[in-house]
Amino acid sequence: MSETKGLLSYLTGAEIKQFISYFIVGGVSALVEWISFFLLGRLLNMPYLPATALAFVFSTTTNWFLGRTFTFKNSKLGKKKGKEFIQVFGVSGIGLLANLGLMFLFVTVIGMKTEFLKTLAKIIATGIVFIWNYLARKLWIYRQKPEQPKAENEKDQ
């Protein structure tokens, strides 16, 4: 119990709010991904790996837009949208590789082959990759630069 209390003491109210916001944005993005995955597989009979990749593109675009608008709105730090978009897709690309690997593991190796089980596998894989995506955005893409101490001659002005 004391370990949990110790860990939570490092979190500020603003960080908790930011994580909750990312959780909501991630939830919306996950819904976009899962619905896209289901529709691509069900309506277009697309194989599960290409459907996973295309659903990723829809989801990541949604996540980038909502994340910069709501979750990391105070962390833009003058970053150009194009550079930020590329960084988000780079981080998410690593997440996609993990997601594809997990989908292969669940569907091909473990045998989750029905549409329902494939969708369940997709939900589990998305949950695992969610943590990677949040930490990479928080600690790299949208990290806050430490404030520089003012020089002695600037303090009095």
Structural overview:
With 157 residues, the protein is mostly helical. The chain has one domain. Helix content is 78%, strand content 0%. It has 6 helices and no strands. The longest helix is centred in the first third of the chain and has 31 residues. The termini are far apart. The model has no long low-confidence stretch (mean pLDDT 82).
Can you lay out the helices and strands and say which pair or pack?
Elements: H1 2-8, H2 13-43, H3 48-71, H4 81-110, H5 115-141, H6 152-155
Short description:
This protein is mainly α and 157 residues long. 78% of the residues lie in helices and 0% in strands.
Q: Structural class, please?
A: mainly alpha
Number of domains: 1
The beta-strand count equals: 0
Summarize model confidence as the mean pLDDT: 82
Strand content: under 5%
Main sheet properties:
none
Q: Assign a percent range to the helix content.
A: over 70%
Tell the overall outline.
elongated
* Count of individual helical segments: 6
End-to-end distance, in Å? 48 Å
Radius of gyration: 19 Å
Write the H/E string, N to C.
HHHHHH
List the uncertain runs: none
Question: What would the keywords be for this entry?
Answer:
157 residues, mainly alpha, 78% helix
